[in-house]
Amino acid sequence: MIIAKILINTSVKSLNKVYDYIVPELLEQEAEIGKRVLVSFGRGKNTEEGIIVKLVEETKEEVDKRGYKLKEISEILDEVSYVDEERLKLAKYISYVYFCNVYDALKLMFPPGTASKNSSKNLNTKQDTRVMLAKSPDEIMMDIENNIIKSAKHIQLLTFLMYNEYVLTSDVIDGLGISRAVINTVVKNGYITLTKVDREVDLLKDYNVERTYAKDPTPEQREVINKIGSYIYDEKYRQCLIFGVTGSGKTEVYLQLIEKVLNQGKKAIVLVPEISLTYQTVTRFLSRFGNNVAILHSKMTIAKRKEEYKRIKQGKVDIVIGARSAIFAPLDDLGLVIIDEEHDSSYYSQTTPKYSTKDIAAYICKTKDAILVLGSATPEISTYNKAKNGLIDLFYMKSRPGIAVLPKIELIDMRQERVLGNTSVLSTALKEEISKNIKNNEQTMIFLNKRGYTSYLTCKSCGYVFKCPNCDVSMTYHKTNNLLLCHYCSHVERNIEICPECGSIDISSGTIGTQKLEEELREVFPNISILRMDADTTIAKDSHQKILDKFKNENINVLVGTQMISKGHDIANVTLVGILGVDALLGLNDYTASEKAFSNIYQVAGRAGRAKLPGRVLIQTNDTSNYILNSIEENDYEKFFENEIEYRKTFGYPPFLDIVLFELVGGDFKVVREEAEKLYNILIQKNANEYRVFSPKSPYIQKLNNKYRVNIIMKTKLSTRIYNIIYEKISVYNKYKKKNVSLTVSKNPTFIN
Hints:
Strand order of the largest sheet: 11-12-10-13-14-9-15
Radius of gyration: 27 Å
Strand content: 15-25%
Number of strands: 31
Largest sheet: 7 strands, parallel
Structural class: alpha/beta
Distance between the termini: 55 Å
């Protein structure tokens, strides 16, 4: 008799263990470690998903001696196992280091889509469904205001469709995180219609990419390629940082390193922050290696992603390119992992398990004696500190190939602009430079990291701020549909012209967003051609690349955008970059705020002058003496790093100490606060000299989606002993924790407010 030891799909900590089930004779041939199953769990009749982690043989007598009756597996869901013993070890490592259940970690390694092995039969790869509004925006807004439409998800879907003529169901499900059940309910209520359409061509597969070959490297590139190439031939784990200025040719280095790995009979994984934002980089890999590349990203249909997973699993490709989840691709004989733009915050998962992709990549490379290459023009502080201290290999690339040079960067004092009577959001200098570019038939990018029309509305008479009723944040005004929208929970209201507190009609707007900036540019330059690239214009499939293609191919004068425009775009005719709203970035209340501000601003600046024409960058600010901006102006990362590392050391932040964040969430603030005090008292009992725990504190945004949050921060140097202490404390707390409050624990989160 075969007994399967099974992990159940649950986040309940007390159930994070294996349970024994009998494998029925009819399923014995299919049973395999790593396959998902359905089992009856607990006293209920419903089946739960689980995964086989071990198979053992027992006699009937041994089973009978247990003293309780074992249940049988109901169904085996997978045709192929994507989880082997090695991946089980990885899942256990993730579970331990990132305070989650093993099954939560295993989910990262499953192919995308539903669990059932028969589900692929229901996926039509030739057609998709178009979603369109069936009623006018005014009718829908009236129903929202009259509380006829109540669901936040329904409102989110409908308000999104007000900005888009139509979208595909795959965009709604993958882009907005809205289920088919929600879509069907909104259809039933008569607000949207669904129409079958031929599926759009997947550009990553069918775009006409011409074959390219290795370029003759520059002296800097050759030195890096040769040195890291020697590590590849040694077949021993090494971690390297390529610190290359924007436009220095890091991608060509990656391509030639991959060729060396392939020549060794090994394979490679390439991670990029987000494929839809780094399309040019991805197409360079396709042009060099063609069908030997598999691409994984969230904008692909589920059927297409499953197809790519199968190609990888069957050994039909040697290179996998994708965002952070691609590190879990089932690629054998791994020899090289490349993490491009390693500083990007998207490499840190914000949902359980809250893991660092770089840490996971290092773990995997160590187990496979592979090389890990990190690349950036603005390395993460902790990464660069390791390199400076000799813990990882450091390679510099300080020049752009050919005649291209780094752009000239200038700070514009907006205080002086106000003194001189300029009330526009655009400085006089930026207006003049845009005019020059228009006359010279050159292109401009303008960065403003705030979408919408204005960030908030406030009453001038009494100071009332129009806030979301569900979240502790102000709502953003979107002029296109005259809406106030919460960017956290999607609550929406028609723009209010009368203050609900004092009745005043003197309503003022706050800081501007990309919509307002676009409008002002059209007022200043009536005949200008403009495109906007932000979260409101890019949710649909391939929308990022369509905007960039139009900007490049039609020589559009100006591209206005959020941080989306900073990633991986190499457009030769862009000679001017204007950067607005930097003071908001500099003022964020978080220990990584300075690092993120430097990186965002410097990366955007790097879009200018990447070819023959020289580039100029104008940064508008009220604080021209800020050390971050001064470092950017001087193209001096080292200066910024020295300031920042000293700050981290003084206040005990990573890399000098680790941060463990305990976040408690619930619907009643008083209860959440009491639970936080309870946990705090448990944490400070004994062992207090090995770590420091700060008293409970509400974050800057205290309420989200009608849930209150209270944080406890611990500073320590994580070790096996400290981990064991933390787990012991959590176990004690869970015995007394109230059910209506949840606890999540994060290691070195990149955002603490």
